[in-house]
Amino acid sequence: MSELLKKAREYEKEMKERVRTAERPVFHFSNPIGWMNDPNGFSEYQGEHHLFYQYYPYDIHWGPMHWGHAKSKDFVRWEYLEVALAPDEKYDGQGVFSGSALEDGEKQVLIYTGVEEKTAENGEKYAVQNQCIAVGNGTDYEKSVCNPVITGDLLPEGGSRTDFRDPKIWKEDGRYFTVAANRSADGSGQAVLFYSDDLEKWSFGSVLDQSENQVGEMWECPDFFALNDAHVLVVSPIGMYAEGLEFHNGNNVVFLIGKYEKETMHFTRTGIQNMDYGLDFYAAQTMQTNDGRRVMIAWMQSWDNPMYPEDFLWSAMMTFPRELKLREGRICQMPVRELENYRKSEVSYKDVCIEKPVELEGIRGRAVDMTLTVRGSEYRKFRMRAASDEKFYTEIIYDREDGVLTFDRTHSGHRKDTISTRSITVDQKKDLLKLRILMDLYSIEIFVNDGEKVMTSLIYTPAQAQGIVFESNGKAYLDVVKYDIEV
Length: 487
Ligand code: FRU
Hints:
This protein has one helix and 31 strands. The protein is mainly β. Strand 3 and strand 4 form a beta hairpin. Bound molecules: beta-D-fructofuranose (FRU).
């Protein structure tokens, strides 16, 4: 084991004990110590779900990337494992960037981007990105002697060697495939497919899709999979223009939905869908569970507007894992069902007429799984204030006439100006709105109408603000079921 990896493992072991457990979310994965960004290597291995992540243990700000590691039997309880990879080779000395993992017989194969610093003839430093392999047993990994295995030499003409990263691997009919993100000659993103029979020698397959400066600039973190009879390419485009209420985060995640012809490796895009409409969501990655579900996890943070308390020793959380389903051409997302095993103390109300601000006995808390159904045709705006006390609150406001749902954390407890609102259009279902809300101390995930749209955002409101208040102008009729989540 390299000195760098040993040092990271020792540092993490000692420091993670210093984190105040009460400040950790209850059912969302948070990093042991230091900085975390993208989920990596989200996959099954020997019957358990593994999650790696972009990690810099030594600071709560981004630094030379390592891979942190954890595993879970049910997506709720996570066990921290030791740091998996450190930037300890020449070809990855500037960072072990994002990638993925694959269970391959007894072995766990990791593929990641190695960032290497080079010096130009004029003495200027620049970085190149290539794809590298490491093979292990679920805890310890050995980097391949053939690294880097996919270099810029394999790229189509004009493909950038500086922006070439985030490989996602899978195996099909005995052959390995990898899709990676790249900047094409026109300066915008493309997803490039490679294949190999032995993980060492790789060939160029095809360009699956390109932005052509329409879907943002550089693409990051591609993923590619079948969902029912469609194929889905997920990418995280940097620098998208907002269109109406769509694509407001400068860094978004989108589903590119289409058809894939395996023989020619040709993907034809037929649609594009924003993956999440909240303020804090990026770099999503999916896995297929052993029971056949397509499950997605993402970094619950934003490069545009990062939010985390400076006095914490850790910086980030992942979303709660979501199952993806294709329904009438739209990809819907709902929390994986395993969460239901941790539901405690149910409180429910039916048909409560809401007008003036009201708190319902037992409906409060900061680690909750709650479903609301709002009916009525007389009201204009229905509001729910969560994480509320005399000073703080975060609002979810439904404007029934416009069919617009707004999340607003303006009063959630920032001490400086921070982007705080997002709105979405809601497909009106006969004056009925259904919201499933997961709240976990510092985050709120809102699943609208059985997951047709999702809004994920952070709130760093003091934990004692536990109130939930409903209000409506005009009569609205509310059903609510609330559980505390205890892990
Ligand atoms: C996305 C990303 C990836 C890269 C990693 C570096 O958030 O920029 O493209 O591999 O983060 O930490």
